[in-house]
């Protein structure tokens, strides 16, 4: 396994792609390349794989394989990036969402509260807005929304006011300063869970993660061939809800349209009726897989 990131639900997710040896596939979250390498093992000489990643660090993980094409781009630009490369339709799309082990372990990137680093959290380091910009520049109302919507914090208004009071004394520039700033409103019993939600909320805001996910899912319908597979691994309820609703209904509200005769009009046939989760063996080998949920669907033929 790559030291950059241990791929989660590797065999289950790649298996659900139902790989054709001569097919064209997309790995929307290349990262350490674990899923991509497994796909390449199943492709024949005429197969192709496009690996997307907005973090330039991942380029070092590219396999030396003419069938593999690295796309340094946010997956929100899925359709356009493929068309630039002469690809209009593909046989399968895989996305392993969330943050790689590399990002958590590279303390200097600011994704983890375990250690001190600049409050950054940009997956694409060419991006302008950092977590420090959000914490120090957003209004109390904006911070409340971010912490409520992206972190699902029950006391979002309280935490937002805590941050505003702290930054009035001195700008919050590091992860340790952020942890100190919210200490007055940090529950002693569930400190780790609370901080995980806080950092998640800021990371999602900085990187526009849910907007990018909705854009990529919508484009997947245009890019996938009839019979093509969409396979997604998510790590928190916000992502999983979007994926589940989209696969079941073709929209993010989960509202199934019906024709004149009352028959459901949905773009996907579900391959997974309920989410696939890691087994006990994988949880022991890779504790970071514990929150993973895998869902898949086949694009219906018209």
Topology, element by element:
Elements: H1 10-16, E1 24-27, H2 34-42, E2 48-52, E3 68-71, H3 78-84, E4 90-96, H4 101-105, H5 131-137, H6 140-149, H7 156-169, H8 175-181, H9 191-207, H10 209-223, E5 224-234, H11 237-249, E6 257-258, E7 264-265, E8 268-270, H12 280-285, E9 293-299
Parallel strand pairs: 1-2, 1-4, 2-3, 4-5
Antiparallel strand pairs: 5-9, 6-7, 8-9
How would you portray this structure in words?
This protein is an alpha/beta fold. It is built from twelve helices and nine strands. The chain starts with 9 loop residues before the first helix and ends with a strand. β1, α2 and β2 form a beta-alpha-beta unit. α10 packs parallel to α11 (237-249). The protein has helices spanning 10-16, 34-42, 78-84, 101-105, 131-137, 140-149, 156-169, 175-181, 191-207, 209-223, 237-249, 280-285; strands at 24-27, 48-52, 68-71, 90-96, 224-234, 257-258, 264-265, 268-270, 293-299. It has two domains: 10-101 and 209-299, Vaccinia Virus protein VP39 (Rossmann fold); 107-207, Putative methyltransferase TM0872, insert domain (DNA polymerase, domain 1, Orthogonal Bundle), CATH 1.10.150.
The rounded Rg comes to 20 Å
CATH class of the largest domain: Alpha Beta
CA-CA gap between termini: 40 Å
CATH superfamily of the largest domain: Vaccinia Virus protein VP39
Proportion in helices: 25-40%
CATH architecture of the largest domain: 3-Layer(aba) Sandwich
Gross geometry:
globular
Helix/strand/pairing class, anyone?
Answer: alpha/beta
Unreliable runs: none
Give the integer mean of the pLDDT values.
Answer: 91
Number of strands: 9
CATH fold-level name of the largest domain: Rossmann fold
Tell me about the biggest sheet?
7 strands, mixed
Helix/strand order, N-terminal first: HEHEEHEHHHHHHHEHEEEHE
Strand order of the largest sheet: 3-2-1-4-5-9-8
Work out the count of structural domains. 2
The helix tally amounts to 12
Strand content: 5-15%
The assembly state of the depicted protein chains is single chain
